[in-house]
Structure formats: C-alpha cells, structure tokens
Amino acid sequence: MAKLPKYFLWGGAVAAHQLEGAWQAGGKGMSIADVMTAGSNTQPREITNGVLPGKNYPNHEAIDFYHHYKEDIALFAEMGFKAFRTSIAWARIYPNGDELEPNAEGLKFYDDLFAECHKYGIEPVVTLAHFEMPYHLVTTYGGWRDRRLIDFFLRFAKTCFTHFKDSVKYWMTFNEINNQCNYMRDFSMATNSGLIFSPDATPAEHEATMYQASHYELVASALAVAAGHEINPDFKIGSMINFTPQYPASSKPEDVLMAQKAMQKRFWWEDVQTFGKYPRFMEAFFKRTGLRPDITEQDRQDLAAGKVDYIGFSYYSSNTVAASADNPWYDFDGVKAEVKNPHLQTNDWGWTIDPVGLRYSMNWLSERYDLPLMIVENGLGAFDHVEPDGSIHDPYRVAYLKAHIEQMIKAVDEDGVDLWGYMPWGCIDLVSAGTGQMDKRYGFIYVDKNDAGVGTLKRSRKDSFKWYQHVIATNGEDL
Ligand code: P53
Predict the structure, then answer these.
(1) Distance 432 CA to ligand 1 centre (A)
(2) Catalytic annotation on 406?
C-alpha cells in the first residue's frame, strides 16, 4: 500500500526577496531586505540606514527570478513539482506599505507567475510576509512596534486574497513568526518585525518590544485568516513556524524541564495561532515579568476568530539545552542554554543534521495541535563544486534529504500524522537569508553566481535534480 497520499504536494520553496531581484522594477518599493548587506558564516549581515554606496546588497539582483521565472518554473515542472512555495513581496503590492491603493504592476507580476505554475499543474503555496516589509514602514512607524501596522498588513492581505482568489488556494501569513524569540539578534528583529534598535538599547527593551510586535502580528494574522475565509471559503490559510526542537542535554530532571520550557518559549506563537488564545505559561510569564503587551479585549476576540487551518513549518536541525543554576526561572535564552549534542554532526554553518528530529517534530506538532501539517522548508546549506564539464555532484544533499524523507514517511505511515506536502527549501540556489551568501546553496538547480555577486546567472541541473525527480515520480516509494 502507498505510504503517502496520492495527492501529496511534492515541491520546493523560496521567498521573493531571496530570488526575485529586480528590486526597483515594476514600481516596487524598497523593503527591509534591500538594506541588508552580504555577510558570511562569521560576519553578520549589516542592516544599513538606507541603501549606501559601495556596499554589496545581494537581494537587489538575487538570481533575477523576476526575469527568469518561466525558465525556472519549467525546470520545476521537469522535476515533477506539484506545488511551489513562494512569497509575495509586500513592497511590490504596496510600495510604501501605507497607501490606500495597490500597485497594479506588482499584482500583474504575480498573476503571470501563478499562471505559469498552473500551466504545469503546479499549485502555488504563498506566504504573505516572508522577512521583507516595506522599508517605509520601518523608518516611519518603527515596524511592528506600532499598532497601525495591523491595518496596513490587513489591507495587503485582503488585496492579495481578493486578487488571487482563483489562482491561489494555500496561504501562510507570517514566515517563521517565532524566529524573533532570539530578540538580541538584529537580523531576526529586522526581518520578522522591522525592529531596529539603538546600540544602547537594553536586553529588556529588546524583549518587551519583541513581545509587543509579536502580539500585533498575531492579531493581524488572525484578522487576515478570518478575512480570507470570507473572501474564499475554500482557502487553506496556515501559520508558519520554524520548528527547531529543544532536547534535554541529559536525563537530569532539570535539563528535561529546561528543554520543555525552551519549547514553550520558542513555540507559543503556534498556540495562539491554533487555539486562538495565549497559553497559560505565557500569561504567567507576562504576569511575573511585567512584560505586559498592549492586549485589548477586542484583540482577544480577534485572536479567537482567526484560527489557522493547517501548520506550515520549517525544519532544519535540533538544539540541545541544559539547565543552569543562575537561571532559576528556566527562562529560555538560546545562547546561554545551548550545548553541543555529541550524537549529531553539523553542516559547514554549524547547524546540526538530525533526520529523526523531523519525525519527533511532526509527532509533537500533530499531537499538540491536531491539525494537518505542511513541511514548507527543509534542506542542507552546502558549498557545491562545479566540475570542468559543468556537472555538479551533490551526494551530501541527496543523503540529507533522503534521510529526512524517510523519517517523514515514518511519521505519516507509522505515527498517523496528517501531512499535506513537502517543499524543501531553496529548490533553486538563492540568497541565504541568514548570511546573505550565494555560496550557501540548497538547490537542485545550480545558479552561476558567487558571494561577491559575480556570475552569469546560468541555471544547471545538479545530480540531486534527477534524484528528486525520481522521488516525486515514485511518490516517495523509491528513495
Ligand atoms: P539560511 C534561521 C534558522 C532557521 C531558519 O536559512 C531560518 C533562519 C534564518 O537564517 O530561516 C529560514 O538562508 C527562512 C528562509 C531561509 C532558510 O530558513 O540562513 O524561512 O528564508 O533562507 C535557510 O541558510
């Protein structure tokens, strides 16, 4: 008997700012991604004050998908994709974010893109906010620290839902909404929520602002879900969470408790989006710390009225944490609590490789939320080498994906998890979000461009391309 459903959504995932390029084409406004420079494994990306001369901004051109999408979608179709996850660049639709009327040229680009997908029977799976709000909303309103952002986002969401009512069925509101749990990381604050802090801002200020911004995003997400269901009752609108499970460093009860508390602190966003209310442990945390975000009675009603239909999540790796005597509240702090897991290898960027963790994550999400799941990111960032004849041998990528798909199938087949699809990240090479590199590659399709921004942008098939094509053709029966 087949282990995966017949209509399983095999595909791949990308995000607008990481591949489209054409940052000023078709009336697009500047986004937060347009002021982020290229970094590296050791050098964080710089978030500059506007676009400055002499800096390398890799998202400006990216892989120029804006002008190459027909060729790229034809390659996805050749691999047999049933689904393609991308995002809509908010600043293509509302260049400044606070206009009343959308930019028709921006809508047209996505009309053409989605039509091209449907030509091959590929279902678009679309994220509304994937790490790139209009920059004007950052400079004028301070990003999501301002309640007015709810209205701006809702207008953007309604415009997309109405305009793409018949061309898109699967939606997600905010990409990896929980990444901001790392509230001391400038990158997460800027990309998730458009929050820029002065260098002397205290950790407490970072933390308080993050909880406030998150709350407004959750309200905006819930209002969007409710509006979307009204516009088209057939829509499936999901949340999108980065799921990095937290393992206890040992069987010591304090370590186990630390891991549980770390999971709560990383994943409470999902509780709100699924159950429509804040979980008890967060209410207790706000009470204890005085970090009381502005939450109105109306907000609570809105949260309850906009529960998601499914859970989209990314899975790359797991973390391991230990309790420490100087943390009596077991308050999760990634940097402090994290320890090395002696059972796992890491990639060149230090991310653990843990296929069993995917099965664990699917079980965790399924038993806690009892909703259908969609794996909308998974993959291995790696350096690739182009042979003199142009071929690219990437057995490490195949090994990673194969091991994860095996665990994914066990979760469905043996554990009964309801899973709609699998869309590995960066199905075509693109700009890394975290580092801004091109040479941190995830793709089945190679793109000739390096970290310095030099290359012909020519596309070519890696060995993994043929492999994934066969996986899809056999619906995962032959890996
Ligand atoms: P890059 C951190 C941890 C987990 C997922 O990441 C993350 C990040 C951000 O660095 O982001 C997601 O490109 C995100 C994508 C991103 C992908 O994972 O840093 O949704 O936009 O490209 C991979 O290797």
Answers:
(1) 7
(2) no
Pick the residue whose CA is nearest to atom 15 on ligand 1: 433
pLDDT above 70 (res 242): yes
* 441-469 average pLDDT score: 97
Q: State the maximum Cα–Cα separation within the chain, in Å, rounded to a whole number.
A: 65
Q: What is the pLDDT of residue 337?
A: 84
Q: 377, 387, 406, 477: which is the annotated catalytic residue? A: 377
Is the CB of 316 within 6 Å of ligand 1? yes
Look-up of token digits 């806690």: 368
* Contacts of 440 by beta carbon, 8 Å cutoff, 6+ apart: 349, 381, 382, 383, 432
Distance CA 337, CA 322 (A): 6
Supply 409's token pair: 């199938």
User: What CATH number is given for 9-473 in this structure?
Assistant: 3.20.20.80
Q: What is the DSSP letter of 455?
A: S
Distance 178 CA to ligand 1 centre (A): 12
Residue 1 pLDDT > 70: no
> Which ligand 1 atom is the nearest neighbour of the CA of 433?
13
Q: How far is the CA of 433 from the centre of ligand 1 (A)?
A: 5
- What SS3 class is residue 236? strand
CA dihedral in degrees (229, 231, 232, 237; nearest 10)?
Answer: -40
Q: Take atom 2 of ligand 1 and give the residue whose Cα is closest.
A: 434
87: its two tokens: 């995002």
pLDDT of 336 strictly over 90: no
Beta-carbon contacts of residue 230 (< 8 Å; ≥ 6 apart) = none
Whole-number Å distance between alpha carbons of 10 and 475: 8
Reduced to 3 states, what is the DSSP secondary structure of residue 87? strand
Catalytic residue status for 205: no
Tokens of 62: 């990216």
Compute the distance between CA of residue 344 and CA of residue 319 in angstroms, rounded to an integer.
10
Please name the residue whose Cα sits nearest to atom 10 of ligand 1: 434
Q: How many alpha carbons fall within 13 Å on the CB side of residue 84?
A: 29
Handedness of CA 423, 427, 431, 435 (dihedral sign): positive
